Automatic annotation (TrEMBL):
This is Endodeoxyribonuclease RusA. GO terms for molecular function: magnesium ion binding. Pfam families: RusA. It comes from the Bacteria. GO terms for biological process: DNA recombination; DNA repair. InterPro entries: Endonuclease_RusA-like, RusA-like_sf. It comes from Nitratifractor salsuginis (strain DSM 16511 / JCM 12458 / E9I37-1).
C-alpha cells in the first residue's frame, strides 16, 4: 500500500465561486496563484501520480492570532470560523488534479480537519486504496447485485 504525505507551509485558501461577466466565467487571480503554488510544491514532493482510488486526509492549520490572550491561545484547537472545510478541500483537490491523480473524482475516501496552530500549514496524506479491504463502516447498507 502506497502512502505519501505532502506538507505546504502556506495560508489555506478556499475555492471561491467563479466570477461571471458578460464575456464568461473565471476564477480570481489569487486563487489561480494558490493552485499554481500548491501544484509546484506537490510536484517537488510527490514521487509519482496515484492511479485508481485514492484516500485523501487533509489537515488545514491556521495561525493563532497574536491578539488572543495566552489562555485563549492555549485552549484553542478546532478552527470553527470561515472558511468552511468543503471549500478548503475543493481548493486542494483542484490544485492536485493532474499532479497527484488524473481527476479529483479518484478521491474516494478521506477526512478533513481544521485546527489552530503556531503557523499556517496544509498537510495532505494520500493513500492508494487499490489494495485496501472494503471498509466495514456503512458497508452493511450498501446494495449489491443479488443481495
Amino acid at each position: 500500500m502506497r502512502k505519501e504525505i505532502l506538507i505546504f507551509d502556506i495560508v489555506p485558501v478556499p475555492a471561491p465561486r467563479p466570477r461571471v461577466t458578460k464575456s464568461g466565467a473565471y476564477m480570481p487571480e489569487s486563487y489561480r496563484n494558490f493552485k499554481r503554488i500548491i501544484g509546484y510544491l506537490a510536484r517537488r514532493q510527490l514521487k509519482a501520480p496515484f492511479t485508481g482510488a485514492v484516500k485523501m486526509n487533509i489537515l488545514f492549520q491556521f495561525k493563532k492570532p497574536k491578539s488572543w490572550s495566552k489562555a485563549k491561545r492555549k485552549r484553542a484547537f478546532w478552527h470553527t470560523q470561515k472558511p468552511d472545510k468543503d471549500n478548503l478541500e475543493k481548493s486542494i483537490k483542484d490544485a492536485l488534479e493532474g499532479i497527484a491523480y488524473r481527476n479529483d473524482s479518484a478521491v474516494a475516501s478521506g477526512s478533513i480537519h481544521k485546527v489552530w496552530g503556531d503557523c499556517n500549514r496544509i498537510v495532505v496524506e494520500l493513500e492508494d486504496l487499490s489494495d485496501e479491504e472494503r471498509p466495514e463502516m456503512f458497508y452493511q447498507y450498501a446494495k449489491e447485485e443479488g443481495r
